[in-house]
Amino acid sequence: MQNDRLIIAGREFTSRLFVGTGKYKDFVETQKAIEASGADVVTVAVRRVNITDRSKENLLDYIDPKKYTILPNTAGCYTVEDALRYARLARAAGVSDLIKLEVLGDERTLFPDTAGLIEAARILVKEGFIVLPYTNDDPIVAQKLVDIGCPAVMPLAAPIGSGLGIRNPYNLKIIMEMIKVPIVVDAGVGTASDASLAMELGADAVLMNTAIAGAQDPIVMAEAMKYAVYAGRLAYKAGRIPRKLYATASSPIEGML
Amino acid sequence: MVEVIQIQVNGEKRGCRAGATVGDLLRELAIKTERVAVELNLEIMDRKDFDHRSLKQGDRVEILSFIGGGAPMDMQGRGRGLVHAE
Question: Which of A6, A154, A247, B79 is the most buried (most CB within 10 A)?
Answer without folding.
Answer: A154
